Amino acid sequence: MLGGISGRHRSPVKGSSLEFAQYRKYVPGDDTRRLDWRTWGRTDRYYLKEFEADTNLRLCFIVDTSGSMNYGKEGGKTRLDYARSLAGTLAYLATNQGDAVGLMNTSPESAMKEIPAKRGPVHLKVLLDQIGIMEANGESELISTIHAAAEKIPQRALIVIVSDLLFEPEPLREALQHLRFRKHDVVLFHLLDREEIDFQFDRPTRFLDLEGGPSLLADPSLIQRRYREAVETYLGQIDEIVNQSALDYHRVMLDEPYDQVLARFLLGRNPKTARSAR
To answer: What is the domain range of residue 39?
Structure first.
């Protein structure tokens, strides 16, 4: 995530800091001023010295606000509530580190669908207010929003996507690869409920489509096996897509404390090992 000020994040953008990172072979188009002539003298091959530099982060959230994000246990928090907690906490932490934070949500009815990344506590309040009033309704427009983010965000950034991914997985592949093609670092929080995975229903149940489709009355004992097979296939497709897209993927169950999910995510962002596009 490129930035114009010094920050607290170690960046693999190879600059002129004093900490040496690695050698790599010269390829046409590289800056010849960074050639290591001593290595050339020993090996008769061209190598570049690369260094690590500290930089500030540009962070953008894409929050799914389709109707299925309203799912939740009666009297409990919804999937959108969980998404708010994840995004709001990460935005607060990033702002306190001097990072620029932005937001895109997928609702076509939102009066403030896009908040460009900026720094500072005043901007943070605007962003948190928008996160707080987001509503979930209608069909998912996550795929088109991801493509729009890839085109609109001009500099390399950390893109954090929070969604239930309840749609046919294949279009997700192209959308995520679009972000990666633009050199963005992508994190995906996939929010699911254990009931959606285990399907532990023991009596005829009416299932509602929160995105506007018809309801379905079904006997779980008759469809449980095929449902679980379909879920296994779906999750396998998601795993394949995220592996091919080389992104940071977190499958999150709604009964997991969000602070534990964030701790796991942050510990995994080790600057020496994390895939990053800063």
So the answer is: 9-55
